[in-house]
Amino acid sequence: MTQNISRADIFEEAEVFVFPASFAQQRLWFFDRLAPENPFYNVSIAVRLTGALNLTALEQTFNEIVRRHETLRTTFVMVEGQLMQAIAPSLTIPLTAIDLRNLSETERETKVEHLASLEAQKPFNLTAGSLLRVTLLQLTETENILLLNLHHK
Questions:
Q1: In the chain, how many H helices and how many E strands?
Q2: Residue 100 · residue 139 · CB < 8 Å
Q3: pLDDT at 129
Q4: pTM, 2 dp
Q5: How far is the C-alpha of 153 from the C-alpha of 150, rounded, in Å?
Q6: Distance from the CA of 69 to the CA of which of 60, 76, 116, 131 falls in 20 to 30 A?
Q7: How many structural domains comprise the chain?
């Protein structure tokens, strides 16, 4: 359900910047409304990381990327019947870690494929939250798979 709000409501929010959506963004919004809960515009990648990994530093790194890039802090709202970009002044994304270390190698690989597929198919909510999701699959003490899922807006 699309929430229609007024300009006054937007500007009462502290430091939220609101701009008209581009034609390309309007097209993506239309398709998202036409076929809700679809993963058509998900851009997913799995990266194998080898070596010691500092989870806190990894999460801080992605949050620094989000801090530096407004597009990753952008959601969409209808304002007086017009689609607008709402850019949050800050946003913290969680790094979800899933421990698969207790599984056998065969079970781990099967689980990795299953979880990567699920994440790639999980739709984004364009009106709330982040348009980037980060999941770490822990295989061994020095082997990890990083799943990145980004909405192509």
A1: 4, 8
A2: yes
A3: 78
A4: 0.84
A5: 9
A6: 116
A7: 1
In which element (H, E) is residue 109 found?
Answer: helix 105-121
What CATH number is given to the structural domain containing 79? 3.30.559.10
Domain with 94 in it: 4-151
What three-state secondary structure class fits 139? coil
Both structure tokens of 104: 């056998």
Q: Which residue has the tokens 């065969």?
A: 106
Torsion of CA 36, 42, 46, 52, to 10 degrees: -90
Q: Which pLDDT score, from 0 to 100, does residue 152 have?
A: 83
Cα distances (angstroms) measured from residue 89 to each of 15, 17, 75, 96, 130: 6, 8, 12, 23, 13
Token output for 24: 């390309």
Q: Are 67 and 92 in contact (CB under 8 A)?
A: no
User: Tokens for 27?
Assistant: 């097209």
* pLDDT tens figures, 24-77: 999 999 999 999 888 989 999 999 999 999 999 999 999 999 999 999 999 999
